[in-house]
Design a protein that fits this description.
Blueprint lengths: L1 E5 L8 E5 L9 E10 L2 H7 L16 E9 L11 E5 L8 E5 L3 E3 L6 H4 L3 H14 L7 E5 L4 H12 L3 E5 L5 H7 L3 E3 L6 H8 L5 E6 L6 H7 E9 L12 H6 L3 E4 L7 H14 L1 H5 L7 E6 L3 H10 L5 E5 L1
């Protein structure tokens, strides 16, 4: 088969479409013939040499895909060859075929194409596991989402609204109209605006009950300032640095919590638990049309370098999808 390989960590030009060995299903795994794979910022970090795949995972980038099951291990009895699926991956999505644990498979939502379904697994599992499973967002609360224009952000807006929350997002002004149409209640331009004051004003001083943060150190103090009493900050990215100063006094005054998670390195059973939660709690919302994948564009997989350039520019809205 062919896959995108990283010959040497570096810029987008490091991504090369090359012939590689075909995958074989290990115990508990299936092989998926890939129809589409979505691009995530973690793929960019892996390309740069800073985010290696977990041991035993394919070396190729790609944390989610969709396609048709081409083979199953003998001990997999609840899936069959020819089944249409989408999948959460530890790596290997930028390829024509990929082996994946059966517990990380999701059905293709009703009425959705395989290309659309490829844009859901990673963002759905990331947002649900942090915003719902950890932070316990519920109806009537306020969710602040940083990076509202990306794949995570556009999904979080929709999930937050489906759960009955008020949703505030930070994003460039050029994306505000589309994010408000998607359901956001307030959009703040992070390049010129003060999201702390905007959140306080919009919530009449209450603050955000849950903050989904992709920035990390740069926003730590301001996130605490924007947090409601008994609120939760869940950090899933470090675009603004990995080391910051934590004012415990400010956090204790809010009775707040800060959690930081990654999804890729979790053990397979933990990922399977998250996938079950998404299937049970999120997929009905997708089937009902309350949540849909937001896809900026599709590109040939051999042009993954162009997809990474677009990702790094942050000029996209939603997901970028690759087609082998």
């Amino acid at each position: 088969m062919h896959a995108i390989v990283i010959e040497k960590p570096g810029g987008p030009e490091a991504l090369v479409w090359a012939e590689v060995p075909d995958p074989e299903p290990g115990p508990g795994e299936v092989v998926v013939e890939v129809t589409a794979a979505a691009v995530n910022r973690a793929d960019v970090i892996q390309r740069q040499g800073h985010y290696p795949p977990p041991p035993g995972s394919p070396p190729y980038p790609g944390l989610e895909c969709s396609g048709v099951i081409a083979a199953t291990a003998p001990d997999v009895t609840d899936h069959h060859v020819g089944e249409r699926v989408c999948a959460l991956l530890a790596g290997g999505g930028y390829a024509e075929r990929v082996a994946v644990p059966a517990g990380q498979l999701l059905p293709v939502p009703q009425g959705m194409s395989l290309q659309e379904a490829a844009a859901l697994p990673e963002v759905a599992c990331t947002v649900w596991s942090n915003v719902v499973d950890i932070a316990r967002l519920r109806k009537g609360q306020t969710l602040l989402v940083h990076g509202g224009g990306g794949g995570i952000g556009t999904f979080a807006i929709q999930l937050g609204k489906a759960l009955g929350a008020t949703v505030i997002v930070t994003a460039r002004e050029a994306k505000h109209e589309q994010l408000l149409a998607l359901g956001a209640d307030l959009a703040v331009d992070y390049t010129i605006g003060d999201f702390v004051q905007a959140t306080r004003d919009f919530t009449e001083g209450h603050g955000a009950d849950v903050i989904l943060d992709i920035i990390g150190a740069k926003y730590l103090a301001r996130n605490i300032d924007a947090l409601a009493t008994d609120g939760h900050i869940v950090t899933i990215g470090m675009q603004g640095g990995r080391k910051g100063e934590l004012d415990f006094g400010a956090l204790m005054a809010k009775r707040g919590t800060v959690a930081a998670t990654t999804l890729r390195a979790r053990p397979v059973p933990d990922k399977a638990r998250i996938v079950r939660g998404v299937r049970d709690q999120v997929w009905p919302l997708v089937d009902a049309g309350a949540i849909r994948p937001i896809i900026d564009r599709t590109l040939p997989m051999r042009d993954a370098a162009d997809a990474h350039r677009l990702m790094e520019s942050s000029d996209h809205l939603g997901k970028i999808v690759l087609l082998p």
